[in-house]
Each structure stands twice: as C-alpha cells, then as structure tokens.
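pinging the channel bc i need a second pair of eyes. not urgent but kinda urgent?? the chain im working w is below, pasted from the shared doc
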Amino acid sequence: MQIYVNGISHGVAEALPLSDLIGLLELGGTRIAVEVNQELVPRSRFPEHRLSDQDRVEIIHAVGGG
C-alpha cells in the first residue's frame, strides 16, 4: 500500500502499525510528534494505530527551549 510521510510517497506493508513505521524510519527513542491525516496520534497509541492506504503522515521533531 502507499502512504505519504512528510509529503514523500512510501510503499509499506498492509495495515502497518504506526510504531513499526517509526522503527523503519529509525526514529525510535527520539522526541517526535506524529499526525495522521491531520489528526495528532498520542505516542501511547502508536502500537495500535494501523496505517491505511493513502494515509498522510506528518512527523515533527520536538525541540526543547526555554
């Protein structure tokens, strides 16, 4: 199936969990925020949130500041 990550098309396995996508992109352990189809997905839901064909995923790196 096809999904879009930050505007770039990627072919991935059917019903891929969001946590697996994060692992494939080597972003595990980093501070990120993820939206799927313009809806924020809490980190606690990454393992259960399954991606669908044509989903649009936006990954944003969190930056700390004061």
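so The chain has a mean pLDDT of 94. and The first helix runs from residue 18 to 24. — does that match what u expected or am i reading it wrong
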